[in-house]
Amino acid sequence: MPHRSGCGRGELNEAKRAPVDLDGHPRIVFGTVDMGCYEWVASTNDYDGDGMAKDAEEIADTDGPDPAFLLAFTAISDTNGITLTWIGGTQAWQYVECRSNLVSTTEQWVAIYTNTPATPVTNVLSLPGPPMTARLYRIRAER
Ligand SMILES: [Ca+2]
Ligand SMILES: [Ca+2]
Q1: How far away, in angstroms, is 12 Cα from ligand 2 center?
Q2: Nearest listed ligand to the Cα of residue 52
Q3: For every one of its 143 residues, what pLDDT tens digit does the chain have, with 9 covering 90 and above?
Q4: Measured in angstroms, how far is the CA atom of residue 119 from the centroid of ligand 1?
Q5: pTM surpassing 0.90?
Q6: Which of 9, 36, 66, 135 is the most buried if burial means most Cβ atoms within 10 Å?
């Protein structure tokens, strides 16, 4: 439903029957419930307050009302190499990527691990060996 359609904000808040729509998102956004069984969602909305927008959560398979369900590193250890621990959805491809700095205009993120669906909610990747020079890591999801 387009944001400016006549259905948006078209129902009385008192008429709502459930606190969430059929996708599990809050039934009232911007102060008034929408007509029908879905609440309009801007692509940048972060319904559950976990820092991930709805579009990114749909890709990562972490969309839902639980703010503890997102794609993120939960622990990084540098004892005996590097151990990365992360949580995420189960139905997306996950890529652990690294690079040595963010300033370089020529260096790109390089995938060092691919997690193929169905993936566990909690994942651990151990990179053995002596401590390396400083590295930056990120986790990315695709569908
Ligand atoms: Ca979110
Ligand atoms: Ca989430």
Answers
A1: 28
A2: 1
A3: 444 555 555 556 555 567 778 777 777 766 677 777 777 666 568 888 888 888 899 999 999 888 899 999 999 998 888 999 999 999 999 999 999 888 889 999 999 999 999 999 999 999 987 766 778 999 999 99
A4: 20
A5: no
A6: 9
